[in-house]
């Protein structure tokens, strides 16, 4: 096999992989669309779907808090462990509080301050991102300095 055949075969494999990926995405969209059309004919499924969409960000944040909680013990300095725990407790409390309030808003609980909060719920999600980033930074600052690649090999 000469170089032309090798490179031709490689280019055909790359092009086939690219078009196969596009076809796979199209097929996935078609199947999900068919599934959603079918499921929305079930009474009450649209409310269930809306609630699932509501809680997905909170589930992601809870998973991130759990991951960072597992990493607190690996931190070398006591200051970073204590400060990370304080941030974790504050962030987790805010996350639970905003999840409860978002669920109350979803269930159409009549309250004047819930109406005002409904306009600002996206700020709570941004605050969660900031707390998680600061916590990860604090934990990273408590780790030992990473060795240079030249020192690792010896």
Question: How would you describe this protein?
Answer:
The protein is mainly α. The chain contains 6 helices and no strands. The chain has helices spanning 3-39, 45-72, 78-106, 112-118, 121-141, 149-152. Helix 2 (45-72) runs antiparallel to helix 3 and helix 3 runs antiparallel to helix 5 (121-141).
List keywords for this structure.
82% helix; mainly alpha; 154 residues; flat
What share of the residues does DSSP label as strand, in percent? under 5%
Question: How are helices and strands ordered from N to C?
Answer: HHHHHH
Largest sheet: none
Distance between the termini: 43 Å
Uncertain segments of ≥5 residues (pLDDT<50)? Answer: none
Total helices: the number is 6
Mean pLDDT across every amino acid position: 88
What sort of overall outline do the alpha carbons produce when their principal axes are compared?
A: flat
Based on secondary structure, the structural category is mainly alpha
Strand tally is 0
How much helical structure, as a percent, in the residues? over 70%
Our Rg estimate from Cα atoms comes to 24 Å
């Amino acid at each position: 096999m000469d170089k032309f055949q090798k490179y031709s075969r490689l280019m055909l494999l790359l092009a086939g992989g690219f078009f196969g990926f596009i076809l796979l995405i199209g097929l996935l969209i078609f199947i999900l669309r068919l599934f959603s059309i079918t499921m929305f004919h079930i009474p009450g499924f649209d409310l269930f779907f809306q609630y699932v969409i509501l809680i997905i960000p909170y589930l992601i944040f809870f998973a991130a808090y759990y991951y960072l909680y597992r990493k607190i013990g690996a931190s070398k300095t006591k200051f970073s462990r204590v400060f990370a725990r304080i941030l974790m407790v504050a962030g987790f409390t805010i996350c639970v509080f905003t999840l409860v309030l978002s669920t109350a808003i979803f269930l159409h609980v009549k309250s004047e301050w819930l109406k005002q909060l409904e306009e600002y719920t996206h700020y709570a999600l941004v605050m969660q991102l900031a707390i998680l980033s600061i916590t990860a930074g604090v934990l990273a600052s408590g780790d030992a300095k990473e060795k240079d690649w030249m020192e690792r090999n010896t």
